[in-house]
Amino acid sequence: MTKDINKPNNDLRKLPPEVNFETPEIYRACIKANKALAELKGCCLRLPNPEMLLNTIILQESKTSSEIENIVTTQDDLYKATLDDIEKIVNPAVKEVILYREAIYKGVELYRQRGIITSNMLIEIMQTLRGTQEGIRKICGTKIANPVTKQVVYTPPESENLIREKLSDLEKFINDDNTQLDTLVKMALIHYQFEAIHPFSDGNGRTGRILNILYLIKEGLLDMPILYLSHYIITYKSVYYKLLNNVTISNEWTEWVLYMVKAVEETAKYTLKQIDEIIRLKNVTEQKVKDVLQSNIYKELTELLFSHPYIKIKVLEDKGIAKRQTCSLYLKKLSEAGILSPIKLWKDMYYINTALFDLLSKGIEMNN
Ligand SMILES: Nc1ncnc2c1ncn2[C@@H]1O[C@H](COP(=O)(O)OP(=O)(O)O)[C@@H](O)[C@H]1O
Ligand SMILES: [Mg+2]
Predict the structure, then answer these.
(1) Atom 12, ligand 1: residue with shortest CA distance
(2) Predicted pLDDT of residue 34
(3) How far is the CA of 335 from the centre of ligand 2 (A)?
(4) Which residues in the chain land under pLDDT 50?
(5) Centroid of chain to Cα 219
(6) pTM over 0.90
(7) How far apart are CA 247 and CA 249, in angstroms?
(8) What is the pLDDT of residue 1?
(9) Please, which residues bridge with residue 343 across strands?
């Protein structure tokens, strides 16, 4: 049965579809991806200060997930903005990325409070990332178009009641622990379903990608939202769009599931490698900071330099590193030693952890 993509998909079926997911191909893909995820989770457990990495890796995920939706920012603008209050950020794209990071934290916090994933949580996540009070979409006529050709590719279900009903079915499926499906297969089904329901007027792609991470946390495959999944999706963005569509048009679930499972495997490996490189760089830097400053604050200070690739004197002061004058002296010495690069922007002096910045930028460049 073929679908008319111009008509609202009101008869979108409940999960799970009647498809055999226990094929050797899917099985093999799941084993590899689960193994890579377990290594990533194990690595995070051994980290002395995981929050330090959360700041930078989540920011990358936020940047790239937003970029999939054509919200493009530069690394410089973003890292600078992380030091400001959200209300003061004027660049709308930067603000959206920072809000996306807030939304990830919000999602994890809500999940930890409730122990299940609910439709209301997804609404709150969308509201956070868009900075809106809007809820489920009420007006008709929402369509998804190919971002390049602008051709309509899909028309989601219409009417608030119907959307709520479909979301509620999805919520039951997410929290049903007796589905007998591999977690990663289930994640792929959930992501498709959420995107196909498309409950909001905007923000569905980003909310759906946060949902993936939350679901992995719920199932214990991750402890922290530290999987840079959008990296894979943006690299293969047209495939992502095509495969979502093929499920709707011709019930092609297997290809979609394999794509998502592969995305998890590649991303887990990539994130692990990146964490490894950051840790190695941090250890080298810590030794240098110790030698240059001759002060026992070197550990805390290095951690700050790795939580914020851009830093200001005030941040050091606020974190209790030392009094303002001493903080200023520290940053000056670290700049003279080539560990930081000072740069004046408007009235503010920023100090960039160039080596870390380059490492993170290298990751971003691989997307394009
Ligand atoms: N054919 C399709 N069927 C269902 N969902 C799709 C399809 N094509 C794209 N999508 C999803 O729709 C998202 C875009 O919807 P949108 O509400 O604009 O999200 P965001 O605001 O996060 O950009 C894409 O990122 C993708 O996840
Ligand atoms: Mg959008």
Answers:
(1) 205
(2) 98
(3) 41
(4) 364-368
(5) 17
(6) yes
(7) 6
(8) 57
(9) 350
**Predicted confidence (pLDDT) per residue in 109-138, tens digit:** 999 999 999 999 999 999 999 999 999 999
Q: Which residue has the tokens 């992995």?
A: 216
Residue 366's pLDDT is: 43
Distance 174 CA to ligand 1 centre (A): 20
Domain 24-269 has CATH 3.30.420.480: no
Domain positions in the chain are 24-269, 294-361
In this prediction, residue 54 carries a pLDDT of 82
Domain range 294-361, its CATH number among 1.10.3720.10, 1.10.10.10, 2.40.50.140, 3.30.70.2760: 1.10.10.10
The angle subtended at Cα 279 by Cα 276 and Cα 285, nearest 5°, is 140
> Quick check: helix, strand or coil at residue 46?
helix
Per-residue three-class SS string for 230-243: HHHHHHCHHHHHHH
Rounded to the nearest angstrom, the distance between the alpha carbon of 297 and the centre of ligand 2 is 45
Cα 91 to chain centroid distance, Å, stands at: 20
Confidence (pLDDT) at 367: 39
pLDDT of residue 139: 86
Phi and psi at 271, nearest 5°, equal -65, -40
Distances (CA, A) of 77 to 74, 80, 100, 284, 350: 5, 5, 15, 27, 12
In this structure, which residue's CA is closest to atom 21 in ligand 1? 203
Ligand nearest to the CA of 68: 1
